[in-house]
Amino acid sequence: MQDRIELFSVELQEEKFRLVQTFIWISAAVFTGMMAITFASLTLVYLFWESARLAVLGGLTVFYTGALIALIFAFRRFLAHQPSPFSATREEIQEDRACIRNAS
């Protein structure tokens, strides 16, 4: 039983580390992306202020909405491909159950 608890503890630490690492990457990407989007948008609107400001603003809105939808689907796919948490612990417990059943 102690081995299973230690294995669970190790897996819990790994999941915690993965969660913190994912949060840091997401935060950095969001911050950098928002800064780039903000300045690119401001530059485009400034360049077309006199001739086509509404068209540029509408185009940017459509583009950002499409990018958001694509990112949501990509992130969902990323989450679906992540390993199941505590899979090694569950496998060991299933093996223990099988051994106990066979011994009975």
Q: Which features characterize this protein?
A:
single chain, 104 residues, mainly alpha
Describe this structure in words.
Helices cover 88% and strands 0% of the residues. It is mostly helical and 104 residues long. The chain has one domain. α1 runs antiparallel to α2 and α1 packs antiparallel against α3 (87-103). The mean pLDDT is 87.
Order of helices and strands: HHH
Derived from helix and strand composition plus strand pairing, the structural class reads mainly alpha
Q: The biggest beta sheet, please?
A: none
Mean pLDDT: 87
**3D shape:** rod-shaped
What gyration radius follows from the Cα positions, in whole Å? 24 Å
Total strands: the figure is 0
Low-confidence stretches: none
List the helices and strands and how they pair.
Blueprint: H1 2-47, H2 53-80, H3 87-103
Task: Please summarize what this structure is.
This protein has 104 residues and is mainly alpha-helical.
